[in-house]
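Appendix C reproduces, verbatim, an entry submitted by the partner laboratory led by Prof. M.T., so that reviewers can inspect both the input and the predicted structure.
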Amino acid sequence: MTKLTDMALLSLFPTRIYVAGLKKTGLERFNRDLIGECEALRLADEAGRRWSERNYPGGYTSYGSHDRLHAFSGIFQALEKALYPHVKTYAAELGYDLRGRRLVMTDCWVNMMAGPVTHGLHLHPLSFISGTYYVQVPRGSAPIKFEDPRLDRLMAAPPKRADLPAREQTHFSVPPKAGRVVLFESWLRHEVPPSFTSRERISVSFNYAWSDKA
């Protein structure tokens, strides 16, 4: 138990976001193979293109049609394998007890967005760690923007000062970079603002759950 003095200012309940490069070698070839797989998927995925037209005009996502790409694609299985140590490290940093438990990728889907296509504020239910991997990032691509999870409870609060450190702000953005992994807890709301780029920003999003080891 923390010992308190008569005057104490405590920092509690941190929100941690993990940012790292996927791997140190072979990244360019790996991303080229991923881009080819993503383009082939979009070409074959008529249902996904229809879903994207309704929900992401000007972009393509396999979220509404193929959201378990790691289950049948060799290159996405390789991505799952490369992501695993990052997710394990992040879960340990969050303090989760993984003894006798295993991490399981439950969902994995592609996002191919150009122009002013956006992802509105959302979270990822039914998982505990989520993330994105950036495959192709043209200059000017928008960051992923996270929201303070307490924001809807800050009743009657004045605005925050602009000179506060990032941990005290109500929003925080992580810039995209090809080869970069960003992990966050699934309850954390986030969005992607418009990019206004002519080339496509390609990313792979995913969720993890846990289960007892068999």
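The chain has one domain: 21-150+169-212. Additional entries are available on request from the coordinating office.
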